[in-house]
Specification:
Elements: H1 17-44, H2 52-77, H3 91-100, H4 103-114, E1 121-127, E2 132-138, E3 151-156, H5 163-166, H6 171-181, H7 184-194
Antiparallel strand pairs: 1-2, 1-3
Length: 196
């Protein structure tokens, strides 16, 4: 069984505490749903031939709930410890500049992906084998992932993350608020771990 993590979040500029609390509640729901589906799967596996249809649906649903848990954990942890800038001399900054031309060019691309129409996640992932970054859009938590690649930065662009505070057309302002509050040392540590 999984438990919802608690996050030590500072006051976030441009993101209301009500919106963040509601979003944390949604995250806890993914944990609860994953646990419930896991229990159902275990029960149905006692007679898989009789329960094949239900078992198939639950098994297909598990990655959605699990990735909802893990992506939200990445998302919220990016604000812990307070805002810090991306150090221009950090390995992450230098690698982004090498791959995208500059960190500004990467950020432009990442924000554009986050602002695309549709629900899901904008993710920066890193492939250590090819020494390459990919800025990707993942729908439904589990459709579009690059298998095995660790996430360096996760941006939730489902409506629940911003509509209550910014409205249906406020995704850009929400993305700006997210970037304003990032603790880049978190992403720098993720990159360092991914390079090993």
């Amino acid at each position: 069984m999984y438990s919802a993590k608690t996050f030590s979040l500072p006051e976030l500029r441009g993101l209301s505490s009500e919106s963040v609390e509601a979003h944390l509640g949604l995250y806890a729901g993914y944990v609860k749903n994953f646990n419930a589906l896991s229990e159902m799967q275990a029960t149905l596996m006692k007679d898989p031939s009789t329960n094949t249809t239900s078992l198939a649906e639950i098994t297909r649903r598990l990655p959605f709930e699990f990735n909802g848990v893990r992506l939200h954990e990445l998302y919220f942890s990016q604000w812990e410890g307070g805002t810090t800038p991306l150090r221009t001399d950090s390995p992450l900054s230098l690698a982004l500049a090498k791959h995208y031309g500059s960190t500004e060019d990467w950020q432009k691309q990442f924000r554009a992906v986050g602002a695309m129409r549709g629900i899901g996640w904008a993710l920066l992932v890193y492939d250590s084998e090819a020494d390459a970054f990919h800025t990707i859009f993942v729908e439904q938590h589990h459709q579009g992932h690059f298998a095995t690649l660790p996430v360096i930065l996760a941006l939730d662009v489902w409506e629940h993350a911003y509509v209550a505070q910014y409205g249906t057309t406020g995704r850009g302002a929400y993305i700006d608020a997210c970037f304003t509050n990032y603790n880049w040392s978190v992403m720098e540590r993720r990159f360092e771990a991914a390079r090993i």
